[in-house]
Amino acid sequence: MAHFINERSGLVTDAIDGLLAASGGTLARLDGYPEIRVVLRAELDPGKVAVISGGGSGHEPAHAGFVGPGMLSAAICGDVFASPSVDAVLAGILAATGPAGCLLVVKNYAGDRLNFGLAAERARAAGIKVETVLVADDIALPDAAQPRGIAGTLFVHKIAGHAAVTDASLDAVAAIARRTAGAVQSLGIAVSTATIPGSSPEQRLAEGEAELGLGIHGEPGIERITLPKAAALARQMTERFSGTVAASQRLALLVNNLGSATALEMQILTKAVLDTPLGARVALVLGPAPAMTALDMHGVSLSFLALDDELEAALLAQTDVPAWPRARPVAAPLVRALPDGLRGAPEPTPSHDAAAAGAVTAVCEALIGAEASLNALDAKVGDGDTGSTFAGGARAVLGDLDRLPQADAAALCRALGERLGRAAGGSSGVLMSIFFAAAGSALSDGVSWPTALARGVERVRDYGGAGPGDRTMLDALIPAVEALETGGLEAAARAARDGAAATASMQRAGTGRSSYLAASDLAGHEDPGAVAVAIAFEALAGLPRGAPK
Amino acid sequence: MAHFINERSGLVTDAIDGLLAASGGTLARLDGYPEIRVVLRAELDPGKVAVISGGGSGHEPAHAGFVGPGMLSAAICGDVFASPSVDAVLAGILAATGPAGCLLVVKNYAGDRLNFGLAAERARAAGIKVETVLVADDIALPDAAQPRGIAGTLFVHKIAGHAAVTDASLDAVAAIARRTAGAVQSLGIAVSTATIPGSSPEQRLAEGEAELGLGIHGEPGIERITLPKAAALARQMTERFSGTVAASQRLALLVNNLGSATALEMQILTKAVLDTPLGARVALVLGPAPAMTALDMHGVSLSFLALDDELEAALLAQTDVPAWPRARPVAAPLVRALPDGLRGAPEPTPSHDAAAAGAVTAVCEALIGAEASLNALDAKVGDGDTGSTFAGGARAVLGDLDRLPQADAAALCRALGERLGRAAGGSSGVLMSIFFAAAGSALSDGVSWPTALARGVERVRDYGGAGPGDRTMLDALIPAVEALETGGLEAAARAARDGAAATASMQRAGTGRSSYLAASDLAGHEDPGAVAVAIAFEALAGLPRGAPK
């Protein structure tokens, strides 16, 4: 896969420059490129304890994205997934630290321990007050001698950063940071690995597989599992938390996007976690948001912090750092009643008519049966949902069949229009709704079926803005309705099928999403809406799908 | 690929529930599941114009994530990539709109036009004041009859939302919204398509390819290109902007992550865009951030808005909506001088010694030559950077060769330690730094080479916490240094190679990232740090790499 970069060697410095450019002048960097990559607050207060963190890059917004008032004073950025050098850490300490001293927040990796540790020793030798807190929140291996530091580190940044701006002493800042580090546990799950920009992706996982307890550097997980549904996954993950976290009655939860999980998934998983027994004790939720990522890994980590009043106040304190996923109190969902006046007309009186019910059923079943093939056809020229749109509408109609006014053709058409307007999304759905509503109105004026359907076609052209030859369902619907007058249903079905077939050679779509495609992408593919119309008329006429003439 | 969901059919409602749960009680929804999915502010002020938007889901945080004070009053959520139904839109209008009326912000797609348009007509028939603004900001096809609405829609949300909270009339809100829509242009680029959670990914693009001018629903781009470097891409994209935007001397820029581009790439591209002629006229930058996504598409869109004082003030106005990518003034990067005291000792006096230079050169060149193979080995058991760490250090040393005190062994060792501490990240880098620093100090105490190197080994064990058998470079270094005393360089090289080979059968790593792996993942793979040590000793001894005994 291609990546949006310049030179691989300039990955981190280029990115830091971009961060600074978009920071509104709140961030600065040290003049130490390429080796020394230190981001610091443009305005530092030497009277306050400096809170400094950092580590390998590739975890953005961590760490440089958390530099700002009430959080970090400076961040030291290593290469992607590699600890920064001792000199880089030392430069950050010297640049950001005043008489109040500094706290180094270090994730528990050998490299970070060594580099931050040696830098701290050098700084102390130069007369600077330095304290260090190690974060080792990963519970993937419960009996690991050296648990990793992962997203729970964010809690330490925020709480130590808040203590520092409230003029706490270095000892006090270090103490609350250590208390936080001791009260947080994290666990990650992912369905893909991380790809370093400029490299090729690795495919370690089979379809449907996930890794539980993986690291934030692409390290394999402790366990490879078949990914369960979100609710079951949330239970499985939350059951692994133990000790202080499991014992706490009041928790904060950070739902961290490891990179490329979609927002939909993140929101689904957040709800699933809050619905578990452990989740029920969450008082504050942070995210879902990318906070400590692993490049583009498709995964998520959960970090739980056992709260007390002091930690909670520090988490809730306002900060001007854009990347900080604000802590919000968990509240019961607010559900409002549907507004009055949503249904225009009263429901029509149900009635039974075998022929009408049979015709409606035949069309609906044919469209439901064609869902996958219409989706596949649409995937080539659009967004792949035509089959689901028609099938969704058909299911809603079938489910309501006994409540329809089957014996009153005009009322039946209007009721179909009403139901399709409610159940079917997409332009096809609403156009079908318009079609049936207009046809129903025409039928109640006493016109014939062919004339009524022609009225429906007219309104579809008005609202949708398409005409014949524009590669839409009209290319099947218009000839079908015309043929109906003279040749009956079978002629209409054959005309619809011919019309649908003709769309395959139409070089340009006049409307809808296909209109954004080049002619070469369209060539040879029938318009899925037109095919759906043909299928419907074939079902009405009792012909097999795509029947030859 | 597996996804973090429950049922595919509940994708959108489950996600909305998660959004609400994490909203701190600021958001509510209508009781219309599954068809009617409307998110609205928990507290609506009927005295102010309601600003309502929506469309297909899959674009999160758009649209529901932008519901909040100063932005949207309500968002209507369709299925993934499908417009919401007329009834859903109508429900949102009825629920969110008071006597001041409402503005519908509609992206220019046939489905949205139809559904929002029909709903607006029904609402008007019920006596509600409704205005509609269409956003058609996509410039992928400059002569398109119906340009799409993409991320530029966010500017309309923010500016109309701000006008509404300042008590502007419906006409005034609609007017500024239309002015904004007329002053914004957007263009997207992506290197992967979007995958709907629960579906399998489609691979439309070859390695190194990108699509320019693609849509936010997975529609193919207008042009398939070989992705250039970020700077060239930024020039190529910005040159396509025209009309109002190209003529404006003061622009706002939204850098929108379409889904899974890494933060590193987004920051790099932001800087690249700001460095173009068009970018030089950007006064306000928003993002980089996910704002109008296409699920997990790896891509980015640029939206430029021609500013005037009124639009700028509305963009800068404070809003409490977490997903809003705050507008920040573009400022020159702040670069601070490196702090004094960073270099402990003064630079040693350079000197020349052919043997020392030859030895250093041989080792460095061997390590540079092994970069790719060591990275590949490390990718199996760690994060794939060992080769680059050693090669990076080697390049820094080679580049400084003439400034090294070649003729003074102790000073040379200390200088190597100093340079490796500066240039090489990762634990291997700092351990090598410690190794040479300690060896240098020992040499200046007058001990022999083997004894000095043994002192280095001792310090590496102290700081790194590993010992023999822990699957680290020590497993090659310890036997090599021991063999040096009795057998000279060639024996040392063979001992190092044997030690490296032995790591392949060590079932558990005692330290470093490999320690998080299961035995089965380690089996048969040599530790890359140990192999690097073997390569270095072989180079010193003049043996070919991996020479047989």
From TrEMBL, chains A, B:
Q: What is the lineage of its organism?
A: Bacteria, Pseudomonadati, Pseudomonadota, Alphaproteobacteria, Hyphomicrobiales
Where do the DhaL domain residues begin and end?
354-542
The name under which this protein is listed is Dihydroxyacetone kinase
InterPro entries reported in the protein's UniProt record: DhaK_dom, DhaL_dom, DhaL_dom_sf, Dihydroxyacetone_Kinase
The catalytic activity of this protein is classed by the Enzyme Commission as: 2.7.1.29
Q: Which residues form the DhaK domain?
A: 7-324
PANTHER family xrefs:
TRIOKINASE/FMN CYCLASE, TRIOKINASE_FMN CYCLASE
Which keywords fit this entry according to its UniProt record? ATP-binding, Kinase, Nucleotide-binding, Transferase
Q: Fetch the Pfam families from UniProt.
A: Dak1, Dak2
Output the GO biological process annotations, alphabetical, semicolon-separated.
glycerol catabolic process
The enzyme's first-digit EC class, named in words, is transferase
Q: Which GO terms describe its cellular component?
A: cytosol
MF-aspect GO terms? ATP binding; glycerone kinase activity
Q: Which organism is it from?
A: Methylobacterium brachythecii
